[in-house]
Specification:
Blueprint: H1 2-6, H2 14-37, E1 42-45, H3 48-57, H4 62-66, E2 77-82, H5 85-88, H6 102-115, E3 120-124, E4 130-135, E5 149-150, E6 153-154, H7 155-167
Parallel strand pairs: 2-3
Antiparallel strand pairs: 1-4, 2-4, 5-6
Helix pairs in contact: 2-3, 3-6
Length: 168
Amino acid sequence: MISSYLSNESQLDDRAIHLLFSANRWEKRALMERKLKRGTTLIVDRYSYSGVAFSAAKGLDLQWCKAPEEGLIAPDLVLYLDIPPEKAAERGGYGTDRYEKLEFRKKVVEYYYALRNSSWENIQFNAFVITICLIGHNCQKGVQLQFFDVQGKKFRELAMNCILKCQN
């Protein structure tokens, strides 16, 4: 249902799709807890901040958007790989997703910035915007990350520094 909505094959009320995305996160909560208890570090692409930012950018009340996320596992660290929406629009295939509209993306970025707290690391990036949440204090040093050049440093180096930070 979510995939067909994202690819514009179906229509849903904005509140309904927000709750479906949140329900998807709640569906995985128990599995995430089990993995964390076993010492696994989870690297989660986007997670709940994304749902809140996108739904609020559509005009839904920010507090209403946050409410279904209450009680989900909070990330220890959020790496926000930041790129201007105009730059993101240059990537191949941009525009096929329901939310890949330049003016809408600008609103989403505003909400991401509004949601930031002390767990966030903002990284200026020369690729598509991604939010990665690291959850779990037992960060694994062997986590395999792709190499990207970010502000003169390798992304792996930046990510490992952040992982070490969450261990302390």
